[in-house]
Amino acid sequence: MDDWLKDSTEVEASWVTVDLAIFTVRGDQLMVLLIERGVEPFLGRAALPGGYVQKDETLRDGALRELWEEAQVDGGRLHLEQLGAYGDPWRDPRGRVVTIAYLALGPDLPTPVGGTDARRAYWAPVSEVINGVRELAFDHPAILADALEEVRRKLEYTAVAAAFCGETFTLSELRTVYEAVWGQYLDPSNFRRKVLKTEGFVRPTGERRLPPTGRPAALYRRGSADLLSPPLLRRVDES
What we know:
Elements lengths: L14 E12 L2 E9 L8 E2 L2 E3 L6 H13 L7 E8 L10 E9 L12 E8 H5 L9 H18 L13 H12 L5 H10 L4 E8 L7 E6 L17
Parallel strand pairs: 1-6
Antiparallel strand pairs: 1-2, 1-4, 2-3, 2-7, 5-6, 8-9
């Protein structure tokens, strides 16, 4: 019998959890927040922060609480949105657990501090996880891969890249975000022209920042646009 034709009485209790793929840019690298699990299953294995949703809280509240308990990171500083649901029967050896994954972005976030069932919390280069240098518990590799592609896509069509920057930023800092997330070098002059040509993406503050070397750079804030028109598209490798 096909799985979808099973009788509706073939059900069992399920648990609901939240998991968070939290990105920031540090040292010109795209980083993801990981915790080292302090309990079974996967004791000692790296994982995305998350946990069970309590009976009296919303999914979002559960995500914010778990983020604070496991890493001492204030989710109120982050761009936070729901990524999707993951519920394959085999994803958790403890039983049927459906997790709601959240995507979060923030500017150069502080060093996290592990708590509750997390031995420690730390930032890791996304490239190391995607390339298999760091192995994640549960189905977190799939969640992270989905979250990374969603961020890359959003940078093309929305102004969310500014969420990686401070309140004010230079176009060079904004370009660094794009290069870190996309993993591509971008020509500075071409990038500047495209950003300034995109209505509502950024707005000048009239102030300048003096870099360690070179000329003072103009400062900008995020503009009023949520969607970019025209979009800033990634370069597609033809190999």
